[in-house]
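Team,

Forwarding the record for the chain on the shared tracking sheet. I've put the sequence and predicted structure together so nobody has to dig through attachments.
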Amino acid sequence: MKRTNRLKGLRLLFAILFFIPILLYFVDFARVVPEYARVLLHLQIVPAILAGAMGILVFQFLLVLVFGRIYCSVICPAGVFQDVANRLFCMGKKKKKGSRRFTFRRPLNILRYAVLGLAVVLALLGVIDLVLGLDPYSNFGRMASNLFRPAVMWGNNLLADALMKIDNYSLYHVTVSTVSVAGIAAGVVALLVFCLMAIWRGRLFCNTLCPVGALLSLVSRYSFFRISFDRSMCNGCGNCERSCKAEAIDSKAMTVDTSRCITCFNCTSTCPKKSLKYRFNPFSGKDSRPAAADKKEVVNSRRSFLSTGATVALSLPAVSAVAQAANGRAHRGGTPVTPPGSISLSRFKEKCTACHICVVKCPSQVLVPAGLEFGFGYLLRPYVSYKSHYCNYECTVCFDVCPVHALKPLTVEEKKTTQVGIATFHKGRCIVHTEGTDCGACSEHCPTQAVHMVPYSGVLTIPKVEEELCIGCGGCESICPVKPLRAIVVQANEEHRLVKMPEVEEVKEIEIEDFGF
């Protein structure tokens, strides 16, 4: 028992070492978590596939081939979160001998491989919406960025208020400005799906709806090290089956479905006779499949398939309706300003899985998750909003942290010449025209000199935009005092363009004789 307990302890230790830094990296609003923690995001399967990181993919598949689905129980933050939810639900409940916790069920292969096949086909056609909706890492990111992070920030503000009353100013107020109703709705849906499915049937999501779980199951069924029965020592107590959150152990038939087993070692640590062992046993296990005469199990499997599929199908219109009602129709049909490095709107839609890590890490807080204001095809993906902030001229954070390379890494010099949109001036809204007063705020905040003031009436000057210099940073729009419709707004480029750098005025050196008098 000591060896099996050590294996479970090591698994828990590594799960904590992966999960806690990833969670903190998402919720960190004070920038105290080291930037190298983002390496853990690049180890996720879907980001690695979309980024074309073949080295990471080979490593992950070799890991599964050798040790089983360690990825699902250690590396995947959504998988660890489901274990936490299940553990919290079980706290305080008395464990009676013979009481049901989990039980063996036939695998829903039709569902999980149909989801995987459909996701692959759609992705090859350039449509990753199914992947966006089911990718475990991205769903965890939406929960962390839209639910956990705001909760931490609000908690910080409450604590700051309490400390101020005793003249302690070690904490400061922070503003939650990057959360949208659509983002909150997506986070709540992901939270409910993970928690309810984990409480109901353990790792049901991982073995039915998760495309990553289905993909890894094709490899794990041939894993070299696996959990298997020593039939001569088993007394048929059923502890292993009740503790298997993947519902992969049939204690009566003494079989383990390695395609669903996530190598959590719960079974080996609860077996009183040490009849379950994790050992080198390649190509020996057979997946448990329903016998032809076992009609009852087949019927139950079909019912589970239909109920699970219907739940997912019915939840999509509800999420869409919430997002639509919250965001309104003001910008319907418009083109979103996509972040620098996205290259084009079409490319960004094909690669971004809406994990929202760029949203929470943007120091200027200009990235916001979209609702339905740009149509269903852009739902939840981040866009640049200049409502109160602008994109920093020399900032490269968003494409530095993007794990799927939906935002192509650019140098600072490339960022300065990338035009994501063009500022458009509306003379009829400008206070120089409507109120006859001087302004020029937009010109003062333009880093490329694309917006400059030209003579208008008498001593008054009015803005003019040089399109070949504008990069669409939004400095002009964010500072414009006209509300609610700004006098100068950035119109998105569906294809990002390159512009020339602003000319730097030559400074002439003057030699001064004597003291310059």
